[in-house]
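Incident log, support desk, overnight shift.

02:14 A customer reports that sequence design results differ from what the structure should imply. Their input is reproduced verbatim below. On-call engineer (initials T.W.) acknowledged and began investigating.
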């Protein structure tokens, strides 16, 4: 496929996945990092109340 055709498909919003070689794809900045936040207790309590009905770990 010519670059112009590829660009046109992309610009037109067409799905171009089938034209890409994803065998060696890498996600940049995918390293996990631990960070710490300090919040007032009322914010923690509000977060806990919001997370419980949704079964979200806090």
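02:41 Re-run completed on a clean worker. Output:
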């Amino acid at each position: 496929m010519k670059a112009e055709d590829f660009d046109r498909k992309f610009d037109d919003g067409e799905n171009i996945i089938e034209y890409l070689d994803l065998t060696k794809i890498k996600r940049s900045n995918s390293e996990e990092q631990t960070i710490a936040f300090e919040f007032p207790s009322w914010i923690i309590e509000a977060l806990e109340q919001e997370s419980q009905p949704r079964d979200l770990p806090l």
